[in-house]
Amino acid sequence: PMGVPSDLALRRPDIREAAARLHQATAEIGVATADYYPRITLTGNAGYQALALADMGSWSTHTFAIGPALYLPLFDGGKITQRVRLSEYRQQEMAIAYQQTVLRAWHEIDDALSGYRAQQRRQTHLAEALAANRHAFALARDSYLNGASDFIHVLSTQRALL
Q1: Residue 100 pLDDT more than 90?
Q2: Hey, which bits of the chain come out as E strands?
Q3: What DSSP character marks residue 162?
Q4: Residue 138 belongs to what domain range?
Q5: 13-34 and 79-145 are packed helices; what angle lies between their axes, rounded to 10 degrees?
Q6: What is the pLDDT of residues 19-60, one digit of tens each?
Q7: pLDDT for residue 8 is more than 60
């Protein structure tokens, strides 16, 4: 009913969170690396411009502007390289945190499964002891009813049963 330990580990929210942080840190390396490439953007503006408020409704007060912008990361002073390195270090940090989370989870799962098995063994032993005490009580009662033993023996086996 509990499942395989690896499935139990995958269901844990702490492992899922650590994995998500690791994936995010890995993606940030790609984002930082993308800054090495040139970017072309297209911008535009639209509006009104007039010296007198009365002229605002005429077509000549409309203004429009559209134009491209080009970004070339030629002289960045090493900022992009440093951002990439920082992203890589963060990714390494998240990888270590993920490993620690998984190891801690495995330890907790192993402890829980060991405790569960110990409780199952204890329950089995208690059930066997109960069955043996019931049998002993039945034998003592039958022995008393047949006159082979005294009632004190019946009471002591009944007490052991309870």
Answers
A1: yes
A2: 39-48, 62-71
A3: -
A4: 5-37+73-161
A5: 170
A6: 999 999 999 999 999 999 999 999 998 888 887 777 777 878
A7: yes
The answer to whether position 44 is within a domain reads no
Question: 67 Cβ partners below 8 Å, 6+ apart?
Answer: 42, 43, 44
Burial class from Cβ neighbours inside 10 Å (0-12, 13-18, 19+) for residue 18 reads: buried
In a domain, 47, yes or no: no
In a domain, 68, yes or no: no
Q: Is the pLDDT of residue 109 over 90?
A: no
Please identify which residue in the block is written with the tokens 């899922």.
16
Contact between 42 and 68 (Cβ < 8 Å)? yes
Q: Which helix (H) or strand (E) holds 130?
A: helix 79-145
Q: How many domains does the chain have?
A: 1
